[in-house]
Amino acid sequence: MSLIPSIIAASALTLVGVGAAISTGQKKVTVLIVTGQNNHDWVRSTPIIKDLLDETGRFDVSVSTTPTQDAPDDAWNDWSPKFEKYDVVLSDYNGKMWPEPVKAEFVRYVNDGGHVVLVHAANNAFTGWKEFERMAGLLWRDANYGDRLYLDENLKQVRQPKGQGPGGGHGAGHAYTIETRDEKNPIFKDLPEVWMHGSDELYHAQRGPAEDVHVLATAFSSKESGGTGVHEPMVWWIPYGKGKVITLVPGHLGTNDKYPTTYDCVGFRTVLQRSVEWVATDAVTIPRPKTFPGADKVSVVPKPAE
């Protein structure tokens, strides 16, 4: 089986509707993107995420950038994002552990009804921060760190205990199909059951507490691509206190990645936009683009002018 499917570029005209998600007078969802460190190209990905949220007209987006890894303590002490001011906190961060007061504020925010979106390597972060690991449920950890969830060949969910099987990883980047596992969830309700995602890392064998995990979508991790040979969770959410946390493990962007990147995939962009709206409101008003991909072709937005 070829790992390089056809790619179709969505013309600007066929993207009609993407920016028309809200009606006049509808209150915008406030979003804080936390960024500043990552083992991926956050300098590019954070503005892209902000732009794709802005384009819907549904969100009011702010960005909080952490100090650098080697910044003095005073800089970290001065960094105090006000999570409680926002409907959603979206993490594009994978770096130094946050200061204890920020961690406490974050836990309080979610416990009191806040909403969190973790994108790609954001679920790799904060090894040993138990409350964050409970919120994420499944994280990039080794096999001895926690349990693993996957779907077997009969699409039955399997819980593999810690110490058995592989730990967190991914094979070669490639385009792959994403399959809906909860068609009633508003994020996926009118999307194709199976659609082709652009070239990306396909995370496998994520580990953690794995408690109250609601799997919304999976992808088959082929052994041909260096994967596990089972269906791995791609999108899931977890209730935490009065709040909830949704994780999207697609979203790789490396420093040398050129167009079309993961963030040019119409399917991924749509799911990310809708996930941010849903986690805050339990509903989705952002329409499905006319160019949303099917099962056999990747659909990408037009290449930006240089």
TrEMBL record:
Pfam families: ThuA. Residues 31-279 form the ThuA-like domain. SUPFAM superfamilies: Class I glutamine amidotransferase-like (SSF52317). This is ThuA domain-containing protein. It comes from Luteolibacter luteus. The lineage of its organism: Bacteria, Pseudomonadati, Verrucomicrobiota, Verrucomicrobiia, Verrucomicrobiales.
